[in-house]
Fold:
Amino acid sequence: MILKTILTVILFYIVCSSNAQITISGVVINEATKEPLEYASISILNQSFGTISNGSGAFTFHLDPKFLNDTLVISSLGYIPFKKKIASLIQLDSAIYELTPTEINLTEFLVTSLSANEIVKKAIQNIPKNYPKSPFLLKGFYRHFRNENDQCVDLIEMALILKDKDYSAPYKVKTEDKEAYISRYQESPVTEEIYVEQFRRSFNNQNFYKEYFFNNNMIVEMLRNNRVKYRNFELDTNITNYYFAGQLMLNDKNVFIISTEKEGGAKIYIDAETFAIIKLENYVPWSGNYLFQKKVKNYDKAIERERSMRITLEFQELNNKMYLKYLNYAWSYEIYSEEKQKTVVLFDVNNLLVINEIIEYPKKSDFDGTKKMKKNQRLENFNCAYHESFWVNYNLIEINPIKKIHLQELEKKVPLKKQFKQSQEKKTGN
Structure:
């Protein structure tokens, strides 16, 4: 079987802003299907910062003019990266770039003495070797987006810094039943420390069970889902079997695709040479069966029932070490009232973390102007003065068109910019 797909990148415009910052904007699509390519990486060659495309393939990348003579790289797993000098791109009003992956004979490549289970076990064993061994920082953008009965009720965005020590196993894996496993996972600690550069949020328009939803820190909830760092669920070999599902290419490297089921299931992308885990994705759609159920705290006759879950995380290489590139964790759940004998509300939640810059050798000055967030702190209680100018040229991820429609619901009474300002003024006492 020969894999052959053409990726097209349409750059809408490349301009220099009034403050001399260079801005590159565009859309990444698959030429064969005309569908957008989500999570495509946009970066500068041999530099430790960048951004990604959104679900519509769109991106906007702000960079300093000192990189004018550097090379822009647009890449995605399974494709030959597009590379071109930034200075040459400025002359273009619009352009189409076709990127064709190397043709691979799938049958020949998959001949290996290792089973899928052995490949995953070796990848886990090699985590201390392939991932950071010393303290590091990740500067990133966080977005929390939530719908209640298909109406947008909350938006939180944050520029943050994650401080971490390494990728050593944080705790021993236990053999236990599913209910105990999930319960322990939901209470497990994370090693990352969270520092906030800027924070903005809409008003909270939630109507049902408002106090229940915000009992936990949603960033901590998301960080727990770094399956590679915490070796849980899809990377827990005590509860999971693995199967070969195919292969891809990344920067001339062969990549195994391992699945957790014979058909469907989670997909794990592993470098065939180093056994570094490059990407993991899993989508469990609503099928009429709940993923788990639990009592709603502070509400005696209410049950939370998770309906679906989607997780995608990918890593990027810097100086022979793998660092988180992005983590997207989304889920839907309902609250069932035992008293009313019916579902009273359905929530859809989306958490996205995108790493804009990797700092291998942290300095005390890296935290200047930041505020440390407590891991047990509810996001709605976090206060930080809102500075609109900070966000003008910040590398955030563009809102997808479908979500822009939901955002209009948030602005029925008050524009978002006013909500951002007023929500923080109430907490800072300004």
The mean pLDDT is 84. The radius of gyration is 22 Å. DSSP finds ten helices and 20 strands in the chain.
